[in-house]
Write a structure and sequence with these properties.
alpha/beta
C-alpha cells in the first residue's frame, strides 16, 4: 500500500510531546468540545496502491473519452490553443508563488498586472483584483463588499433565482453568519428573466445591493440597463455576475445603464481553462475606482524604479496577513495564480477579435441547435427571452431518464433542472459552443428524437 509522507517518526513525536510536557497529541485538542470532534471519517475510503490508483484512473479516463458534451450550467467546453497550457505548465509558471517580499518576483507581478488590465478592459470597469478561488465565492465577496459599503447594521441583498443555484448556496454559506439577509427575487415564468415589476416591493432602506446575472442561469439575457438604473435610482449597489466570454459580444457591465454597475464578478473558466472534472477554476472581481478600498485580495500596480525602468508592485493588499484582522476586507489568502496565468496567455493569443469570434460561434451554434430541437415532437423551448449559448427545453419524458439514455451513447445531453428548480420538471438546460459542429448538433437531435419517439439507443464506444 502507498504511504502518506509524514516525516516524523513515533520517536520524534514523543520527543516533541515531552518537550511541551504532555503525553499524547489528543491533549492539544482538549479545549475543543467533544461534540465538535469527528472520531472518524466514515466516507473517506482507505488509500489505494499506486497500481490500483493507476488502473482506476485508466478506467475513468476511458469513460470520459470522446464524449459529446452539451452540458453548460456554469462551466463550458471551449477551444483552447495548445500553446496556452504548454506555456502555463512550464516550471517557472507551475511553481511560481508571490513571496511576501513581492517586488522580488517581478515576473509573477507583471503577469497579474497584465491579467488585471485585460479583465478591467473586458468588464469596462476601473479596477480588477488578482482573482479569487472561483465564481461562486467571488459573488459572495462582491456581496460582502456591498454590505460593508452600505454601512448599516441590517443588510439585505436582492439575489434573483436566475442566479446559478450553486452560487446562491455558496453565498448563503459564506454570508449567513454576518447579519446579511438574502432576499430571493422570482423570475418571470414566460421570459425566464428577473421580473422588473416585482422589484418595487423589495426596495427598502435595508437593501444594500441587487445582483444581476448576465446571461442568467437559464441562458437568458437579462434587461441589464433597466436593472442597473433601477438599483441606482433606489441608492442600491449593483453587482453584475457575468460570463466573461459573453462580454466580448454583449454590452460589458461597466456600460450597463446610465453609469454602469458598481461591481462585476464571475467565473473565469471560459477563458482558457479546461473542464477538468470540475476544477480548479478561478473567480474574477472588478469594481469602480471609488470602491477599491473594499476590494478583497491583491491588486498589482505599475511604477518605475530609481533608474526610470518599469517595475511592478503590490499596490493594495487588504487581507489579514498584511494588515490588522479587524481592518481586513476578507480572509482571501491568495489568487488562483496558475489559472490566471493560463487565462492571460489565452486572452493574449486570441486577442479581442478572436475572443469575440468564439463568442459569436457559440451563439450561432446554439441558435442552430435551438431550431433543430424544436422540430422534434415533444420538445419545446421554455423561455422567450434572447439567449447567449444555452437554452432551456421541456421534453415529454422524464428528463433524467432521457439524459441517462443519451449518456449510454456517449452524449452528455444537458443539465436536468428539476433538482434545483422543482417547478421545471422534465426541463433540460442545453449548451452549445464553438466546439460543436453541425454534425454534432444533428447527432443530438436525431438521438433525442429517437428516444422521445420510444426508441432505444445503441451504446457506442
Amino acid at each position: 500500500m502507498s504511504m502518506p509522507f509524514i516525516p516524523h517518526t513515533k520517536k520524534d513525536v514523543q520527543e516533541m510531546l515531552a518537550t511541551i510536557g504532555i503525553d499524547k497529541v489528543d491533549t492539544l485538542f482538549e479545549e475543543i468540545p467533544k461534540n465538535l470532534r469527528i472520531a472518524k471519517l466514515d466516507n473517506v475510503l482507505e488509500g489505494l496502491s499506486e497500481l490500483e490508483l493507476s488502473q482506476q484512473m485508466e478506467v475513468r479516463a476511458e469513460s470520459d473519452a470522446q464524449l459529446l458534451c452539451f452540458i453548460g450550467a456554469g462551466a463550458y467546453e471551449h477551444f483552447i490553443p495548445a500553446a496556452v497550457w504548454q506555456i502555463a505548465t512550464r516550471g517557472e509558471f507551475m511553481t511560481a508563488y508571490t513571496p511576501y517580499q513581492a517586488e522580488a518576483s517581478q515576473g509573477s507581478l507583471q503577469l497579474i498586472y497584465e491579467y488585471q488590465t485585460m479583465m478591467a478592459n473586458l468588464m469596462q470597469l476601473d479596477v480588477s483584483n488578482a482573482s479569487l478561488y472561483e465564481g461562486a465565492s467571488a459573488l459572495a465577496e462582491a456581496i460582502l463588499m456591498a454590505a460593508r459599503l452600505h454601512k448599516k447594521d441590517k443588510v439585505k441583498i436582492l439575489l434573483p433565482r436566475t442566479v446559478h443555484p450553486h452560487y446562491r448556496h455558496t453565498v448563503e454559506t459564506i454570508v449567513k453568519q454576518q447579519a446579511i439577509e438574502l432576499i430571493e427575487v422570482p423570475y418571470h415564468k414566460t421570459t425566464g428573466r428577473i421580473d422588473l415589476n416585482l422589484l418595487a416591493k423589495f426596495a427598502t432602506e435595508d437593501v444594500a445591493a441587487l445582483v444581476i446575472p448576465q446571461p442568467n442561469f437559464f441562458g437568458a439575457l437579462e434587461a441589464v440597463d433597466e436593472l442597473t438604473d433601477w438599483a441606482r435610482d433606489h441608492k442600491i449597489f449593483s453587482i453584475g455576475v457575468v460570463n466573461p466570454l459573453a462580454m466580448t459580444l454583449l454590452k460589458p457591465p461597466g456600460q450597463w445603464g446610465t453609469n454602469g454597475v458598481d461591481i462585476a464578478c464571475g467565473e473565469g473558466q471560459p477563458l482558457g481553462i479546461p473542464l477538468a472534472s470540475g476544477g480548479p477554476y478561478y473567480g474574477f472581481l472588478c469594481c469602480k475606482q471609488a470602491l477599491v478600498r473594499q476590494m478583497p485580495g491583491r491588486i498589482v500596480g505599475q511604477t518605475v524604479d530609481l533608474d526610470g525602468k518599469r517595475g511592478f508592485v503590490l499596490t493594495l493588499q487588504a487581507r489579514e496577513q498584511h494588515i490588522r484582522r479587524g481592518k481586513a476586507t476578507s480572509n482571501i489568502c491568495t489568487n488562483q495564480g496558475l489559472m490566471v496565468t493560463a487565462s492571460t496567455i489565452f486572452m493574449s493569443l486570441m486577442g479581442a477579435k478572436g475572443l469575440r469570434r468564439l463568442a459569436e460561434l457559440s451563439h450561432q451554434r446554439t441558435r442552430e441547435l435551438t431550431v433543430m430541437l424544436q422540430t422534434i415532437p415533444g420538445v419545446q423551448q421554455v423561455f422567450s427571452a434572447p439567449f447567449f449559448n444555452e437554452v432551456v427545453f421541456k421534453i415529454n419524458k422524464p428528463a433524467k431518464e432521457v439524459l441517462a439514455e443519451l449518456a449510454k451513447s456517449r452524449i452528455q445531453g444537458g443539465y436536468a433542472l428539476s433538482e434545483t428548480y422543482p417547478e421545471l420538471q422534465d426541463c433540460i438546460l442545453i449548451a452549445a459552443t464553438e466546439t460543436k459542429t453541425s454534425v454534432d448538433l444533428a447527432m443530438l437531435r436525431d438521438q433525442l428524437a429517437h428516444l422521445l419517439a420510444g426508441g432505444k439507443l445503441v451504446c457506442h464506444g
